[in-house]
Specification:
about 1000 residues, 6-stranded antiparallel β-sheet, 5-stranded antiparallel β-sheet, about 50% helix
Length: about 1000
């Protein structure tokens, strides 16, 4: 036998699924009242989230969470951990078990009762699956297993044991014995219960009859051959007489028990018939009321029909309906029925104040609490009634009454009252259940009628608004996915007339991506629309791209919500559409500007870091460049040390070139005062060993050069511009491993209005450099990262330092230029660089450096530097050049020295830590020697503080690491500048 499945339970079960009949709880309450009267029932129900009328309603079911909280409260208040089992053993003693008990008593035998456990259990619980089998005449096995999703607790297992024990008392007057060899809550597959009950008298006598017949027959057969002829007849007659007596007694006992069973069956049948008749009449009443009022659109008519049907199908002497007014401050009488109509005029003028005078009345309390009220005898509560309520009830001659709230979606809209003239006409909880059903139908019809009337009254205003508003108002049927209404303004936005759009399916109105997005949102919202806690009136806003009639597209912002029918089923979508094309363009522009700002901020932050690193590296590299240069000045041409020292010197220069890249990244190392021509710089690069080496690595390159012969000059740094060209060409070659076309061109270009490309190119005259390739291209994801330091897709070990494109970015920005990038995967990349033009002519060619021209004549020089190695290097170079050199380690020491002495020139480090930096030191020196000559030295790039020192009188600045050419020419120039000034 497989486990039975309750078809009424939902597939998805959780702690909020109704699982347990209120009749179980009702039996518990009767047990508590009898054995634990000190337990406060109201507190117990409140803690469990139950109400008295829910418990009294035989058709109500409670969930696992409510049941758990009910048991938790009981155990805490009584201290009895076995209370669930004791309540189960009380089951057959309960007066509230009703028809279930009568039905069980009407069954033929105890085995039959236990075999019917699964059917009986289905009427009490939806949380478990039961099966049963007979083991012996007085023994049965019951199995129970929680359904998937049910979080059953051990106390419920104990309650089942108690209930199975109590079933034995139905026919035997004693509890059955229940063994529990397997338990689901201890890890077994299910709970198994072995039930044993006492044997009945009928069963005993049946066994006596069977065994006595067999035994006496065997005795007769064994003794028969040895008996005399006269004794044979007497023995046979005795045997027959004894067996007849046993059979007669067994038959008598069996008939007696059968009569008792038949009597119980008759009583059970009558009870079931009475209950079925009551339920049938109640269902018929509710159905008739629902069918009659569903088509009415007049609230007064609805109230009259409801009361007319109540009067027709019940024996109530009085009934009335009161509804809350529009301001929700009064209950007003709307309809009534009376056995005598002499008080109808009074009732029609009745009002109950919900805020002031009658706010504490028994009827208003029913309205506010949303709890039904049963008063079995009005005379017993008269002294507690509010005055108007007491007068009201006495005038209609009511002895007992029921008041139920009329509720729609958790909001009270009125009350329904029925009553009888005499208290002896008993009103019960079943009456409450009936009236609550009637009140629910009444509430729905009243609300629907109000809604319909409101819609009908506002339809003209709605049409006027919809036809003239600038936004598009529409209604979409969710089944056909077609519009059922579209306002005329759609023609202005999309070009379609409302009639044309209504004929089009939604997939022809929206672009594919937008159609997919819209249908996914609709499907998702339909799934959650009926979930608990979800606002049924909530709306959602989404941006969708729509087709225009001319084939173009338009972005529209749609705000929509579901519309439901009377049954609460979603039938359509109501929405408003607004043209947001201008906003989308502005958002796109804003997003591009933000990307540009983020790139600039990122590069600025990295540049600040790189500048600091470059400063420290320059100090370290000074020894690798300056000392080898000094050694080479004093070595013979054939010295074996000359080549290793030259190697060290060249390595230092290469390292210094990398530092120059870092300074370019920091955008503080590019002097832009030199007038240069891009054609000349490109031509020099194309003739360089670096380009020849590049062509050797990439022999399949096809190189095209296109120069503008009248290219206008720019102001900048030829060194950095040459490195920029080299990096762009190298990247282009790397992007074409299997060969391709590399193009380099220059041109003059005038931008007459700002152009937003990769950069925002401002209006003006520009010299433009274009480097393009037909290589692998750059993906959109990577194109925003190519200028980041060390971000590369090229071959490691053969493609430079990873700073190439960063140097390009820094150089262009230091030249106040702009960059545009065009690229597509598999189609190549095009870099366009814009440099502001200058009308100045090219500078004269610089003469070759000769050390003999830069020797000194014993002039005194004070070197101020916080790094000892830098002081030693500068001192060594200047001493060999014929200068008299002193060194100090900080600005404070320099000021102290110059208070007592004077020097012809200061070599002043700009950055010294701790203490005064170069600018502060120079200011204090000028207070002592107003015309003190000085040059500024720094491993960092040119800064505002260096420029400030130069405005105060300092000369050129020397960028570390020191070389003989840089330091000698700078000092010689400073002496010459001051001589010319004097």
């Amino acid at each position: 036998m497989s486990f039975n499945r309750n078809r009424n339970t939902e597939n998805q079960i959780d702690e909020n699924t109704p699982l347990y009949s209120s009749r179980i709880t009702l039996t518990y309450l009767e047990f508590i009242k009898r054995y634990h009267p000190d337990v406060d029932i109201d507190s117990l129900l409140t803690h469990a989230g139950m109400t008295r009328h829910e418990v009294a309603d035989a058709g109500h079911w409670f969930n696992q969470n409510q049941t758990d909280r009910f048991n938790e409260f009981l155990v805490a208040k009584t201290g009895n951990l076995n209370i669930a089992r004791e309540a189960g053993r009380f089951t057959v003693s309960s007066e509230k078990i009703g028809a279930a008990k009568q039905y069980a008593l009407g069954l033929i035998t105890m085995p039959s009762i236990y075999m019917m456990i699964s059917k009986l259990a289905d009427s009490m619980t939806r949380g478990s699956i039961f099966k049963a089998r007979k083991i012996a005449a007085n023994k049965a096995e019951i199995q129970s297993k929680p359904k998937p999703g049910v979080q059953e607790k051990p106390y419920q297992c104990q309650n089942r044991i108690g209930t199975l024990e109590s079933v034995g008392k139905l026919l035997t007057e004693t509890f059955a014995e229940v063994g529990h060899p397997s338990c689901f809550h201890k890890g077994d597959a299910c709970c198994r219960y072995i039930v044993t009950w006492p044997k009945t008298a009928t069963l005993t006598w049946k066994r006596i009859r069977k065994y006595s017949f067999l035994l006496s027959l065997l005795t007769l057969m064994a003794a028969y051959p040895f008996l005399p002829a006269a004794g044979e007849t007497a023995l046979i007659l005795s045997w027959v007489l004894i067996n007849l007596m046993i059979w007669a007694n067994a038959e008598r006992i069996e008939k007696k028990e059968l009569k008792n069973i038949l009597d119980r069956q008759g009583n059970a049948a009558q009870a079931l018939m009475d209950e079925m008749n009551t339920r049938h009449n109640n269902a018929q009443l509710i159905q008739e009321i629902g069918q009659t009022i569903s088509g009415l659109l007049d609230i007064d008519k609805i109230n009259q029909v409801v009361l007319k049907n109540i009067k027709k199908h019940t024996n109530y002497h009085f009934g009335s309906i009161l509804l809350v007014n529009e301001a929700k401050i009064r209950l007003q009488h709307k309809a009534e029925f009376l056995s005598e109509n002499n008080q109808s005029a009074f009732l029609r003028s009745t009002e109950f104040d919900l805020i002031h005078r009658d706010a504490d009345g028994i009827l208003t309390e029913c309205f506010k609490s949303q709890e039904p009220l049963l008063v079995k005898d009005v005379t017993k509560i008269e002294e507690n009634l509010a005055k108007k309520c007491s007068v009201h009830l006495s005038l209609v001659d009511i002895g007992s009454f029921i008041c139920v709230p009329i509720i729609y979606e958790k909001e009270s809209i009125g009350i329904l009252i029925v009553g009888n003239r005499h208290a002896k006409n008993l009103l019960t909880q079943s009456d409450i259940s009936l009236l609550m059903g009637v009140a629910a139908h009444t509430a729905t019809s009243i609300i629907n009628t109000r809604a319909f009337n409101n819609i009908r009254e506002s339809e003209k205003r709605y049409r006027l608004l919809a036809d003239n508003v600038t936004d598009v108002i529409w209604i979409l049927d969710v089944d056909s996915m077609k519009f059922t209404y579209v306002s005329p303004s759609v023609q202005r936005i999309q070009g379609f007339t409302p009639e044309e759009l209504i004929q089009m399916p939604l997939q022809e109105v929206l672009l594919p991506d937008s159609f997919k997005k819209a249908t996914e949102i609709i499907a998702e919202e339909l799934m959650v629309d009926n979930a608990e806690g979800v606002d049924p009136n909530k709306s959602q806003t989404v941006e969708l791209e729509n087709y225009r009639k001319d084939g173009s597209t338009v972005w529209i912002e749609v705000t929509a919500r579901f519309l439901c029918n009377d049954s609460g089923d979603v039938v359509s979508l109501l929405g408003v559409a607004r043209d947001i094309s201008d906003r989308k363009s502005a958002d796109k522009e804003k997003e591009k500007l933000q990307e540009q700002l983020q790139r600039a901020q990122k590069m600025e932050a990295i540049g600040t870091l790189a500048g600091g690193v470059a400063h420290d590296l320059n100090n370290i590299l000074s020894s690798m460049i300056s000392y080898p240069e000094l050694l080479l000045m004093n070595l013979d041409a054939d010295s074996p040390l000359k080549k290793p020292i030259e190697t060290i010197y060249e390595s230092g220069k290469k390292a210094a070139a990398i530092v120059e890249d870092l300074l370019t990244l920091a955008r503080r190392g590019v002097p832009v005062s030199e007038v240069v021509n891009l054609n000349e710089i490109v031509t020099e690069y194309l003739a360089s060993p670096e380009f020849e080496k590049l062509k050797a690595f990439h022999p399949l390159l096809d190189i095209h050069i296109d120069f503008d012969s009248k290219l206008i000059n720019i102001k900048g740094s030829s060194v950095h511009l040459s490195k920029t060209i080299m990096n762009l060409v190298s990247n282009a070659a790397e992007a074409m491993p299997d060969g391709g076309t590399l193009s380099i061109s220059t041109e003059n270009r005038y931008v007459d209005q700002p152009v937003r490309e990769y950069d925002e190119v401002q209006e003006g005259d520009y010299t433009v450099l274009v480097v393009s390739d037909t290589g692998i291209g750059i993906s959109p994801k990577e194109i925003h990262r190519i200028f980041e330091p060390f971000y590369t897709k090229k071959v490691m070990g053969r493609s430079g330092t990873g700073l190439g494109m960063t140097v390009v970015w820094g150089t262009v920005k230091d030249h106040k230029g702009y960059i545009d990038i065009e690229s597509a995967k598999g189609k190549g990349t095009r870099f366009t660089l814009y440099f502001p033009v200058t009308r100045e002519t090219l500078s004269k060619v610089k003469a070759d450096f000769s050390i003999e021209d830069y020797y000194g004549n014993g002039e005194s020089i004070l070197v101020v530097d916080d790094v000892e190695e830098q002081r030693q290097i500068a001192s060594s170079i200047l001493s060999q050049l014929g200068y008299s050199v002193k060194t100090v380690s900080c600005g404070e020491a320099a000021v102290d020295y110059l208070k007592k002495s004077s020097v012809d020139l200061l070599v002043l480090d700009m950055i010294m830590d701790p203490g005064m930096d170069g600018l502060e030191t120079y200011k204090q020196v000028l207070s002592l020697h107003p015309h003190q000559k000085a040059v500024i030295a720094s491993g960092y790039s040119e800064t505002d503080r260096i420029k400030e020192a130069q405005r105060l009188g300092a000369g050129e600045y020397i960028k570390k690491p020191y070389t003989i050419e840089k330091i000698s020419s700078t000092i010689k120039s400073e002496f010459a500048r001051n001589s010319a000034a004097n």
